[in-house]
Write a structure and sequence with these properties.
This protein is α/β, with parallel strands linked by helices. The chain folds into 2 domains: 233 residues, P-loop containing nucleotide triphosphate hydrolases (Rossmann fold), CATH 3.40.50; 39 residues, no CATH class. The strands form 2 sheets. It has a 6-stranded mixed β-sheet with strand order 6-7-8-3-9-10, sandwiched between helices. The protein has a 4-stranded antiparallel β-sheet with strand order 2-1-4-5, covered by helices on one side. The protein is globular. The structure holds adenosine-5'-triphosphate (ATP) and magnesium ion (MG). Adenosine-5'-triphosphate binds next to helix 1.
C-alpha cells in the first residue's frame, strides 16, 4: 500500500491581503481512497483551506504537498490532473458556450486526441447524469444541473483527488440525495479520493469515513463520524449540531425511556438502533 499521502497540509498558516490570519497551523493528510469531510460553521476557513490544497492560494508559511512533492513543483497542467477542485458556485467555474464544450475544455488542454477527449466527456456526462444536456448553452441549465456539469468538467480531468466546496448547498432534496449517492459511488465504487467541505451535519455521516473539524481557522479534531459526534462539547464550541436523526433518537432515549444504545448518525443506523431497542423491550399493542 502506498503510504505517501495523496495530499498533505503541513503547518499551513494563511493570511489574506488585509493581513487577517484565517488558517492557523493546519495539518492534514489525505490518502488514496479516503473520503474526508472538512466540517465547519460559516466563516471557519473551509474554502480558504481547500483553495490552498488546490494551489489557488499560497500559504503564508507551511507547505502543501501532492504525492509527497511540494505543490509549487507542479505545472498547472500536472496539478489539474492530480487535484480537481469543484467550486461552491458553478458560475465561478463554467464559462464555455455549451455543456460539452465546457466539460471538454480541460481534457482538450492536455493535448489529448479528440477521440480521447470525447471518450472522457461522454463518460463524465454519463456519470453525472447530464448527457441529455450536452448541446445546451450553459446558462440554459438549472443551478443543480450546473453543479453537476462543473463536477463533470473536473472528473473529465481524471484527478487523483477531488475537492468539493459545499456540493449540496442550494440543491433541492432530490438533488441533494443524488449528489450524496453520486459522491459515495465515486468513492466506494470508483475509488476516487474525495475531500468535501461542508457545514451539513446531516449529510456528512452518509458519505465521509473521516471528519476534520475546523474552528476559526484551526483544525481542532480529526476522527470518524462517531468520534466527532459523540463529542458534544466539540460540536457546541464549533457552532455545529448533531444530525437531526441523532437528536431524535437521543430525545426518545432521554424523554421517553426508549432503551436505544449507540449513536446513530444516519436514518439506516437509527432504524437498526431502534429495532434493536424494541426487540429487547417490545411495546404492548393497545389496539
Ligand atoms: N478574499 C478575502 N479577503 C479577506 N478575507 C477573506 C477573503 N475570503 C475569505 N475571507 C475571510 O476568511 C475567513 C474564512 O472564510 P472562508 O470563506 O474560508 O470560510 P468558509 O468556512 O468557507 O465559510 P462558508 O461556510 O461561509 O463558505 C472569513 O472570516 C472570511 O471573511
Ligand atoms: Mg466556503
Amino acid at each position: 500500500m502506498n503510504t505517501i499521502p495523496l495530499i498533505e497540509a503541513r503547518a499551513v498558516n494563511f493570511k489574506y491581503e488585509n493581513n487577517v490570519q484565517v488558517l492557523f497551523d493546519v495539518n492534514l493528510q489525505v490518502r488514496q481512497g479516503d473520503f474526508v469531510a472538512l466540517l465547519a460553521a460559516n466563516g471557519s476557513g473551509k474554502t480558504t483551506l481547500i483553495k490552498t490544497l488546490a494551489g489557488l492560494l499560497t500559504p503564508e508559511s507551511g507547505q502543501v504537498l501532492v504525492n509527497g512533492k511540494a505543490i509549487n513543483g507542479y505545472t498547472q497542467s500536472e496539478l489539474y490532473q492530480r487535484v480537481g477542485l469543484v467550486f461552491q458556485n458553478p458560475n465561478d467555474q463554467l464559462f464555455a458556450a455549451t455543456v460539452e464544450e465546457d466539460v471538454a475544455f480541460g481534457p482538450r488542454n492536455l493535448n489529448l486526441s479528440e477521440e480521447e477527449v470525447k471518450r472522457r466527456v461522454d463518460e463524465a456526462l454519463e456519470i453525472l447524469g447530464v448527457s441529455a444536456l450536452r448541446k445546451r448553452p450553459i446558462h440554459h441549465a438549472s443551478f443543480g444541473e450546473q453543479k453537476r456539469i462543473a463536477i463533470a468538467g473536473v472528473l473529465a480531468m481524471r484527478p487523483s483527488v477531488m475537492i468539493l466546496d459545499e456540493p449540496t448547498a442550494g440543491l433541492d432534496p432530490e438533488g441533494e440525495l443524488m449528489m450524496v449517492s453520486l459522491l459515495r459511488n465515486l468513492n466506494r465504487k470508483s475509488g476516487m479520493t474525495i475531500i468535501l467541505a461542508t457545514h451539513s451535519v446531516d449529510t456528512v455521516p452518509m458519505v465521509a469515513d473521516r471528519i476534520c473539524v475546523l474552528n476559526c481557522g484551526r483544525l481542532v479534531r480529526d476522527g470518524t463520524p462517531h468520534q466527532i459526534f459523540s463529542n458534544l462539547e466539540l460540536i457546541r464550541t464549533c457552532r455545529l449540531r448533531l444530525p437531526y436523526v441523532t437528536s431524535l433518537v437521543d430525545d426518545l432515549r432521554r424523554l421517553d425511556g426508549v432503551p436505544a444504545n449507540g449513536l446513530p448518525l444516519t436514518v439506516a443506523e437509527a432504524r437498526e438502533c431502534l429495532l434493536e431497542a424494541f426487540e429487547r423491550k417490545p411495546q404492548p399493542c393497545e389496539l
